[in-house]
Please model this.
Amino acid sequence: MHSTDDWITTPLTGDLLRGALDLERTEHGLLPHRLPAAARAQNTDGQLAMAESQPSGVRLVLRTRATALELDTLPTKRVYVGAPPRPEGVYELLVDGRPAGRGTVAGGSTLTIDMTTGTTEVEQGAAGTLRFADLPEGGKDIEIWLPHNETTELVALRTNAPVEPVPDHGRRVWLHHGSSISHGSDAAGPTTTWPALAATLGGVELVNLGLAGSALLDPFTARAMRDTPADLISVKIGINVVNADVMRLRAFGPAVHGFLDTIRDGHPTAPLLVVSPILCPVHEDTPGPLAPDFSRVADGRMSWVATGDPAERASGKLTLNVIRDELARIVAQRFADDPNLYHLDGRDLYGEADAAELPLPDGLHPDAATHRRIGERFARLAFADQGAFSG
Model:
């Protein structure tokens, strides 16, 4: 055991963090953001504000000889009125790239969300401590992946030996944007969201802009991607546009073109992969909006239902099949002038056979096993020979 006299407190600074686009100094410590301040200033939606502050793909990265480490954080837990309790956010430890521990932080603040009224309430709480002991002797690289779905303010870092930043290893940076599926939904932990798994298999550094409920072709998100250094870029578009019922086909096509144009302003020749939606039976041919179904809450389950009328497709309402066709058309059209633009049908990541074997538990979000399948398939299709990111 180590006494408190052994601890060295290291200031939490940007050179110890990867995967965040901005760091906000709060009264408690350091809050990682996945959208920059300029983008956040143009947003008035509470769902997006919550999603971008949840640090999916954000990790502390440091080099040390320490054998014990403590990290004080102030998490914000979510409670949905009428829905089953959510699991605690998971922190995952890697030592020299290998899994070495998992933990949670008790306490924290509580955000209560009523999906039927759209109201929220925050109850402030206290910070807690994550502790990892018995780490290997000698110099090593440490990564602590923060909970992908739990807003986390970093308060203090203590170790029993000095800490320094890990130098850049020269790996390519992959910048990805998508919905809650890319954010991590019901993955088992932050290193096993499908983008994190694919990044590990592809040997790249991940910047994950998967934003739950918020992949809506927002111009400020496109500008954030334009301004973020990256070697490889992907955008997974469709499910949120349908389930939020935010636009019709007439607006969707130009919005996709504009989003891609903005990314290309900052990354004119980087491989850019457009990924259409994975299979989601409730929305294949039925438009949104999506609504929660509380009929099985007593069994500890909640699901989602599409409330649109399939006949409305004739007037331009969007479904996943409509969006897949439109994305394929747009990429084919642009390819003549943009040979580094690629397309991937999301059903190649999760299709009908997968849905029969691994159905989406709530009708919308992949579970842990499905995240692993999607991540492995994406790595094979994108990073392997002839893939968009194989170069």
